[in-house]
Amino acid sequence: MDRRKFLATGALSTAGVVFFPGDLLAKEAKLNAPSKFPDPIPFKKVGEWKEFELYLDIKIHEPAPGFQYHTLAFNDMIPGPEIRVQYGDKVRVKFKNKTGLNHTIHWHGIHVPWRMDGVPFVTQLPVMPDNEFVYEFEAKPVGTHFYHCHWGTLMHMQAGMYGSLIIEDPNDPIKKQFNYEREYTLVYSSHDVNFIRTEMNRMLTRMKERSYLMKEGRFEHERWSVFDNRKQLEESMKNGYEPPYALSRRSPANLPESNWFTVNGKSYPDTPYLFIKSREKIRVRLINAGSVDHHLHLHGHDFWMVADDGIPLPQPWQRNTVPLTPGKTYDIIIEGNNRGIWTFHDHDTRKVTNNGLYPGGNLLALVYEDLPPEELIISKHSGNDMFKGMDNMEGHEGMDMKDKSMDMKKMMFGEDKLPKIALDE
Ligand SMILES: [Cu+2]
């Protein structure tokens, strides 16, 4: 078996998939690059309005090759398409619900009229199966924002109901100061795919029952757990109604524990590459549409923090790690001043795993396009034989690696027993 084949097969049993650096600069990688970023959605100009159409359906999604799960996808995409408008635009979004579940859309960080805020039973009724709702608002304030479902958010958001919403400023101070040409949107999320599956099934079942009762005219506020006021709730409880939380359907231990972490819906090795050239500046819009913290760290560079929740910072500053808490957006500028291939990843190392295996999750690469091909040959810089030295491996004190009966090569190819590790003895 040659080395490449070994890395592609044998290594899988203990770790995630790894690609050699040459692959990151291959023609296919560059051709595929645009597909790794949210698609901007086209609009129709209707009078003074920019009219967008969003629909929602259940779709099978593949965050990394060979792993699939059911998602709630806007326009068949995870994340939903990017809505990109100019400051002050009149925005109309026609939302069609093609699923058997209820939804709304909330415009995170946008100063919409309150009836457009997408909070079910507060600003609107939920958009029920096969129904439509039209959202209208003026695009303000400027910057990096996002939209997401506000019904059953614990499941609906992690199932895929989020997308970037960028409001461009014709006099953008960040553009003026850094004069970048390329920009990238990175939308982070985390997913408990087991929770999504069971909860989606449960919700679909409950909705069938609700639809039946509604058709029969027997659907009461108790079924929704929605009351006109506290007195009505108390009356219901006197008659034997139990609020869902009192029935303890779920303990804290059963709340979602994410086992997949995505950027733009993808996990490593399918995460996007940020292409850059020496001396180029790129703008990266970071959005946390998930429910866990990320501590994003860039190797080999300090980047500029230029906007916080879309608001340009009066004084940009430099750092190499940024905490991206749920609901936050940050804009950063990366200067191409250290040619190479560099990792940009969560420093909470649990989040660079797929189903518990490293490497995975939101690990991605900053790739210099002007790298000379000879620099890409990894063996040139790390010795010609990656197994060289294994024959003479001394091992660490306390580890039984001096055992001459153990052949590391054989062990790694799976033809010998695992080494006896004596640390606990
Ligand atoms: Cu929803």
* Overall SS class: alpha+beta
How many separate domains?
Answer: 2
Helix amount: 10-25%
Number of strands: 20
H/E series, N to C?
HHHEEEEEEEEHEHEHHHEEEEEEEEEEHH
Q: Which stretches are low in confidence, meaning pLDDT under 50 for 5 or more residues running? A: 1-13, 401-406, 411-425
Number of helices: 10
Architecture blueprint of SSEs:
Blueprint: H1 3-9, H2 21-24, H3 27-32, E1 44-46, E2 49-64, E3 67-74, E4 83-86, E5 90-97, E6 106-108, E7 132-138, E8 143-148, H4 153-156, E9 162-168, H5 173-178, E10 182-191, H6 193-215, H7 221-224, H8 230-238, E11 260-263, E12 273-276, E13 281-288, E14 294-298, E15 303-308, E16 311-319, E17 321-324, E18 329-335, E19 341-346, E20 364-368, H9 378-382, H10 408-412
Parallel strand pairs: 2-5, 4-9, 10-13, 12-20
Antiparallel strand pairs: 1-2, 2-3, 5-7, 6-8, 8-9, 10-11, 13-18, 14-17, 14-19, 15-16, 15-18, 19-20
The protein binds copper (II) ion (CU).
